[in-house]
Write a structure and sequence with these properties.
Elements: E1 3-4, E2 17-19, E3 22-24, E4 38-40, E5 44-45, E6 54-57, E7 68-69, E8 82-84, E9 87-89, E10 93-94, E11 100-103, H1 108-111, E12 114-117, H2 119-124, E13 129-131
Parallel strand pairs: 2-5
Antiparallel strand pairs: 1-6, 2-3, 4-6, 7-12, 8-9, 9-13, 10-11, 11-12
Amino acid sequence: IRAYGGTAYGMACHFPFLYNGSLQHTCVSDNLFNGRSWCSALFQYTGESPHNLYGFCDIEYTLSDFKTVEGNDSPNRCVFPFIFNNRYHFDCVPDSNGRRWCATSSNYDVDGRWGFCGKKAEDVFVSNAGEI
């Protein structure tokens, strides 16, 4: 996701990012910017320089709003982050054919529940994985 406005115009949102002591995996909608959806361009957002690079999200939804198509648990909502191959994934990931999918539970390694991401999710998000 690219940030619009704010201090990080045009920069990529950094997911996850640390805000108020919690990891954020999607754009945040809180009272900081009157409920307007925003993200940090850095790992940590404190609101104080130099940790104040933020921008507004150009989409009105979050990752978890995407419903899956096909797969063994479809239609259902993607669950983020989810564990796959012992790693956290914060968005849809490509299979061996390049088609993007997500887990519909928090731990694919245990549950094996999944579905392909809808076209909107494929167009907007790129994979970002973190070690457990």
